[in-house]
Design a protein that fits this description.
alpha/beta; Rossmann fold; 6-stranded parallel β-sheet; binds uridine-5'-diphosphate
Length: 253
Amino acid sequence: MQQQDPTKISILGVPIHHVSMGDTLQLISRWMREPRTDAPLRQICTANPEFVMKAQQDQLFLDVLGRADLCLADGIGLVYASRWQGSAVPERVPGSELVYHLAKLCAENGWRLFLLGAAEGVAAEAAEKLQNLYPGLQISGTWSGSPALEENESIVSKIEAGNTDVLYVAFGAPNQDKWIDRNKGSLTSVGLALGIGGSLDFITGRSTRAPEWVQSLGLEWLHRLWKEPWRWRRMLVLPKFLYLALLQAVKQR
Ligand code: UDP
């Protein structure tokens, strides 16, 4: 069992923790068992180079990432950047895989899971898929909404009414991470919340992940660009990320 909080490095000001998928699950199990009298929920961010570049222009997002209990190296670019700094993270920890492992843990431990976000109907369909995969999984609710402030109160009430233990938020970054941070204080039943990007779309089969050999070559991002070409504009920041991360590593050596 992961007893200590994991160490982290800073990649252009964004903390990235030294954890594997196994460590992450152990840490979550520990957190969920800890008594939480007035402590707010634990927050996990599934970071990638796009997060880091967004955070360079968005102080609130940078602060949210800094306050999160765990920032995972979801993007391969962060794994490379950690190696360049001489302090490599053990592996890439994709949020799109964590959502399955954690749903299994929820089923095994009786933790109630709420799915928030994605397009109309996606969260409910993803809930059904996860329940088929992990019999006994309790879904405390689903909501295909938006991060708009007008919806905030009703979403929080629904999550609380369901006595939710674990919350997946699929609004895309930075909205999902800011949403969790903003509502931490009101989500009193929730022990853990994580931003999961497009993972509900993967669970329902609306998006497909790259074949394993493509993932093992560190090219999942390229597969995503091929499948969802509208992403090209967002991905334009990647060469700049690599340059800045390399520069940071050279300066630190
Ligand atoms: N989304 C949403 N409400 C919004 C904007 C986005 O529910 O106002 C959802 C969108 O449907 C998708 C997810 O947020 O399921 C984010 O997906 P994206 O592919 O942008 O995230 P990534 O995986 O790249 O972090």
